């Protein structure tokens, strides 16, 4: 089965193959030509399969007077196709800088909340080959490594939402033709031509690259190959990380130095980056250049003690120790209630069984080694920087309960 205006389009079954395992599917439709094409194609793909349920989400960011009308248009077109549609509104103050990033975050937050409420399993977006090409060029200009140059994958997770991009192999002009041949009039967002945005500048530069043979298809092909190479290197690095590192109960990560130094540079760099991410509780990878600089310093022996983005690095002849940097913690006290599971500082999972008393969690702070040993009940020869940045657990009624992963009492109630 092919969609309208099929030139340049794969079979719909092939196009939407990444969604084969999903039943309740959300479509992100802004009203532009790309997302309206997605609406048309997805509706045709799902029409003859009662196991598939499509729900349309459109967001009114409140940034232009026309936005509300555009959202109404999207719902009207979805209704003609027999699809449910929800208009989500971004309320509150809007930032004066970083507006596009803030709008993107708000969009995924609002859609994510609606998806969870409706039991939607995956969100489908209309990102296409031209978007992919722009992303590759932007990331190349920003100094990304292979992980970044792989750009967008067909399946990923954004703001905790599973996201599918089935149109990455289709160009924008093909999607515009699908929209036009379906008799739809897309919304026109002036920001898409605003040279104040970096992505727009790259978009306008694409024809010049295409004239030299570096068109959207070539760049998408490059991104696919980069993702393939990155996946292979990541698997090797994950094995090396498991073999070379140890993590104590307070989150201190120790790398075996001689074995680490013997790794190929790319694998060693990835092992170091993963250690930094885990020790610092970062949810996203670190920028590549600072990690490369640290890796080079370790390899040439010039790194002893330094910090990087909230992580304290101590390098000796036999080991490199990574801990959370005490002075960089900005973690407010939080209360964990019965039946809850929370992630604290991006590093520790804390679960409280049903019927247990509430527990307050906060950074341990300026504890002495004697304090730590009193709390954990054993001698402690580890890094005090790790102990002081571990979660300090306090029974809301009886006082101190435990520190880090070492519980003093009631280990059946609290797991870190």
Topology (SSEs and partners):
Elements: H1 12-15, E1 24-28, H2 33-46, E2 53-60, H3 67-80, E3 84-89, H4 99-118, E4 122-124, H5 129-141, H6 146-149, E5 155-158, E6 161-164, H7 172-181, H8 198-211, H9 216-244, E7 245-247, E8 253-256, H10 257-261, H11 265-280, H12 288-299, E9 305-308, E10 311-315, E11 319-324, E12 334-336, E13 341-344, E14 348-352, E15 359-363, H13 369-376, H14 384-388, E16 391-395, E17 399-403, E18 406-407, E19 414-415
Parallel strand pairs: 1-2, 1-4, 2-3, 4-6
Antiparallel strand pairs: 5-6, 7-8, 8-11, 9-10, 10-11, 12-15, 13-14, 14-19, 15-16, 16-17, 17-18
Description:
It contains 14 helices and 19 strands. It is an alpha+beta fold and 416 residues long. The strands form 4 sheets. Strands 3-2-1-4-6-5 form a 6-stranded mixed beta sheet, sandwiched between helices. It has a 5-stranded antiparallel beta sheet with strand order 7-8-11-10-9. The chain has a 5-stranded antiparallel beta sheet with strand order 12-15-16-17-18, with helices on one face. Helix 2 packs across helix 7, helix 5 packs across helix 8 and helix 11 packs across helix 12. The N terminus and C terminus are likely disordered.
Tell me what portion of residues adopts beta-strand conformation: 15-25%
Which bin fits the share of residues in helices?
A: 40-55%
Based on DSSP secondary structure assignment, what is the total number of beta strands?
Answer: 19
Largest sheet, in brief, is: 6 strands, mixed
Q: Report, as a whole number of angstroms, the end-to-end distance.
A: 52 Å
Poorly predicted runs are 1-7, 405-416
